[in-house]
Amino acid sequence: GTAQIGVVGMAVMGSNLARNFASKGFKTAIFNRSYAKTAAVLEAHPEAEFVGSESVEEFVDSLEKPRRIIMMVKAGPATDATIETLIPFLDQGDIVIDGGNTYFPDTRRREKMMAEKGFNFIGCGISGGEEGALKGPSMMPGGPKESYAHVGPILEKVSAHYDGEPCCTWIGTDGAGHFVKMVHNGIEYADMQFIGEAYDLLKAVGVSAAEAADIFAQWNTGDLDSYLIEITSEVLRQVDAETGKPLIDVIHDAAGMKGTGTWTVQEALNLGVPAAAIAESVFARAASSAADLRKAAQGALSGPDGTVQVDDKEAFIEDVRQALWSAKVIAYAQGLHLIKVAGQEYGWDIDVAACARIWRAGCIIRAKLLDRISNEYAAGNLETLLEAPSIAQGLSDANTSWRRVVAKATEAGVPIPGFASALSYYDLVRAERTNAAMTQGLRDFFGSHTYRRIDKEGTFHTNWSGDRTESEAVDAH
Ligand code: NBP
Questions:
Q1: Among all residues, which ones are annotated catalytic?
Q2: Where is the 6-phosphogluconate dehydrogenase C-terminal domain positioned along the sequence (predicted)?
Q3: Which residue in 8, 260, 274, 389 is deepest, having the highest Cβ count within 10 Å?
Q4: Which residues line ligand 1 (CB under 6 A)?
């Protein structure tokens, strides 16, 4: 065969990605389980150098060796089924890439299975939706490093670019790429939750949707410059044709989700990584959709009506901007910390700076801040983003504003689970001493779980039910 790359799955993402490959000059083989989609793509895009096949065998044969095949099919069983149909026709050394939103343990399992058969398997997180697939997404490939040399240049060419640098790089072995994509989505949940809280607070001081659209557009010219802030302005400016009201006021306030945010939080819990601001963002969506819970609580609970009283409205709006920036930084810090810990835990050897670098364009969380974050990680071996000098300084400068916003919102009864959780994290991780001493004391009291002391080595237990003397415990529970 002569095609340089093959795409399996001609739904929205696959067809756009295939067009992207073709537009960059790659002869592209295309295939879909049911031929109708392939035929439709061939017909709609005569300009593209496609090789369409009706059978898997024909498709695999149309590719030059070692083959490069990227699957863009539904995550889960459909991906396993697609791999199974490819296997009989593959040769040793061929490379199969899964570009779907796959849960990373599945990628680890598939990579192992494929390696045992002599095939290379790459799990590649792809962000940017339909437009990204067509014009340049952010790509997060993980798998055998040697095989990246063969596919990397092609992926880098079709990926988004930031200052001429591709938003695609080898992330790490087996599931690393899909893990990083998962955390990207977790951060995306937090980003969006914070934007929602910021808008709620603007409304609470009497800002209209149209005014808020201008405010977000203004914020987008500064430190908050990002895709999500930009489209927030667009959403706020939209007027509903039917009612003449701002569209935002007629959209049902129950948020959907597809699972990647939940996976991020589950993984944070598995690894014991504090990522509460991201978790609050997932829980906020769950709360929004818990109709029965909300109805029952609305009927029973009282409190302030959500109006924020301020003397200086402009100053408060600036405070909200600072709070939004600060909370956003915390979500990035939590997500990147999760990536760092997972990289150690799973032996992925992840370069955190590179993750931030390839998120600068193409993906949903693309933001000016990511350039600074990637530079900070590249400059020093950071345990947390929060210790980076420019970040710590920024948070310090914004701190009074952030606290004022949390206090005002709390007084007024405006729910701000994201802003408040992010601020608690800030105070928790910088505290010299946490309240965990109490937890340890209580655990020792009711369960003889023992504790350590600040002034000497060893594990201790107090005889709470007897004479209350302390003894050194031999066997820590
Ligand atoms: P879908 O997720 O809707 O999947 C449709 C494709 O999967 C079709 O090609 C379909 O073939 C194929 N397929 C199914 Br369903 N079951 C199959 C099976 N048992 N065997 C073989 N093929 C099967 O497509 P999409 O929205 O283009 O997304 C593709 C992937 O990209 C997904 O994993 C998605 O999560 C991921 N992704 C999506 C976005 C986005 O913004 N939409 C962004 C980033 C990543 P058929 O035509 O024969 O039914």
A1: 181, 188
A2: 177-465
A3: 8
A4: 9-14, 32-34, 37, 72-75, 78, 81-82, 100-101, 126, 129-130
